[in-house]
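One such shown below:
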Amino acid sequence: MSFLPTDYEAPKASNNYFKLQEGENRIRILSKPILGWEDWTLEKKPIRFKMSEKPSKSIDPKKPLRHFWSFIVFNAIEGKIQIMNVTQATIRKAIEALSKDGDWGVPYHYDIKIVKSGEGVDTEYHINPVPHKPISQDVIDLFNETPCNLESLFTSEDPFSREQCEKGITPLGSEESQTIVEDKKHPDIIYVNEEQLNKFLDTKNKLKDSDQMEIDVKLKRLNIENYSMIPAATYELILPSMIERLPVSE
């Protein structure tokens, strides 16, 4: 006879802060980051300062101040809205590079996989973006049901507390991010699938800058602000003309 049920799993503690686990972690960034400097008290509690308020020295001389980003994410593994605090330069630089890349853009439009391996000073992080996909309405609803005030991190208060949220709530991404919400008004429209989207982006990236700009202007006139929201019919019309404009390889 088994002492515990065969399907027993210890309940996980509720945690409002995202912690990178060994192996693959998958997130969707949902808000703009707050930026600043992080220090730690002798009681091992974090203290955060705004970019313009960097202290002249850290509390513990052996532990220098660290630059940090904090933003709200959807933890796809646990299905939770959490705050992710990033001090690892490898992760910051990778996300910054993606946000500046014309084929990827701001990280509200796609999930990001962060693979953690190793321990201590040998810890490594590999960041892989997932093809563009609209945020599901379920995630939007969960975000709205879990208000958070990121600015509270600067005063060491609980960003999810009612008191702090009454002072202000961190919004979902930016106005630009509203284009990635699933289109509920036109459910009959068939949009590009993952393979088509990748082919579109690959082809567009090979075009001259002027041709890429012309494509973007054309899409904007059609009220298409996000590549993943290109109707399949429009894709079939526009792709051949893009291929015709590809530079001839010598």
The chain has two domains: 23-165, 183-244.
